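Record passed on here:
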Amino acid sequence: LLVVRLQYRQQRLGYLSVFRPAINIETLWARQIDWDEPRQLRPQQSFAAWLELKSDQSQEWVLTDLQLAQALGKHFAMALHQSGLYQQVHSLNINLEKDLQERKQAELRICALNTELEQRVLQRTAELQHTNAELLRQISEREHTLRELQQVKESLKRLSRQNELILNSAGEGIYGLNLQGETTFVNPAAARMLGREVKDLLEQGMHPILNHSKPDGTPYRWEDSPIFAMLQTGTVHHVTNDLFWRQDGSCFPVEYVSTPIREQGKIVGAVVVFKDITDRQLMEQMKDEFVSVVSHELRIPLTSIRSALGMLVQGRFDGEPDKRQRAVEIAFSNTNRLVQLINDILDLERLKFGKTVMRKRACNMTDLIQQSVDAMRAMAEKTEVTLEANVIPVQVWVDPDRIIQTLTNLLSNAIKFSPSGTTVSVIVEDLSALQASTSNSVRIAVQDQGQGIPEDKLEAIFDRFEQLDASNAGHQGGTGLGLAICRSIVQQHDGQIWVESKIGQGSTFYFTLPLYQQ
């Protein structure tokens, strides 16, 4: 028996047993039993061979036998190795086929998943597109809404600014109240009329500030005021004459309208608009005085006319031609005075309200003065008053008829109030020719040597119906409107008129007119 180790590349694969007969028997080796091979050593014989070897009955091995056994061992090792490799390759092939099948199944599954994924992607894409379109629509709507809100905001801002400008520029006082009577807004005109600052009036009770007392000083309760009643009833109140109080304790007459502020039909406050009617009341007072004076001035000549005519009608002067003639002269003189008074009143009112058109043109001042002096010369000669004119050749831009009217009025007054034997002078001076003068005017002076005017009357005589000596003026046919008319005419020529006088030394009336500019 020979045992050979089977090894391939340092890898031990097993052992090979080689048996041979004891004497000249062909050596066979143990392997899988083949019953058709008579020379094959049976396993029982292998054991017998081993027993023979143990009893030193076996044949000795020679070198060729060992070389053959080694060669066989190498071949067997290689065969076993190749068999192992074959088994591994076979196993690998099986595993590979299995892997390939699994991979194919995986690919099928992946393909199915891909198809499902594609369908889901398409579905999801469609949903996202729909969602995106919906979002774009919503975004567009929101952008449109935002633009509209921005436009509304800008409109409200402009409206607020416009309301603020309107409130700030309004000449009437305007303030708002809540139901408790506290201010919510005040415009500058209201604060100015009340002598206060706007910030000092906000969120304050207005009634205790401006309407706390009656004209006689007795308290005026908030609950008794028309504004409180308006907040309770919602009825607009128009008060034509009331008093508001300033911060300094003074009061002034006002007219106001209080209007409720409603929100969803409910009263939430009020707006009060008021204006100072001091000037209006003054104008009404002046109108009343004017009517009273005009009535008086008209009554005087009418009374004289009625009295003279009454006596004539009653025949009291029958047989007395001188008295009858005197009565007729009185009626005629007062009739002329009445006509002049009416004309002067109408003329003054037309000038005051700008209803008289000034037809201005370039005129020679010398010509205007000469015409005025000629018109008054008969009156001067009647009273033995001398008229003088000291003029220079200057051109003025005036309405000639109105300037002649002014000059004749001033000359008439100067003649009426000048003693016999005195002189009335007209003097013209070019103010632009004076040294260092910037004026483009001419100054006309009408100077008399009469009794003079008291200093406290120098301004008042230009008012309507103001006369120094009413009895003398009436005797001379004066109406008290001449100087007022002169002032209106001069002012409409952008000029000034004034008087300088000393008692016992006469008076000088000055007025200026614009020079004609080439």
Summary: The longest strand covers residues 251-263. The chain has a mean pLDDT of 80. The first helix runs from residue 43 to 54. DSSP finds twelve helices and 14 strands in the chain.
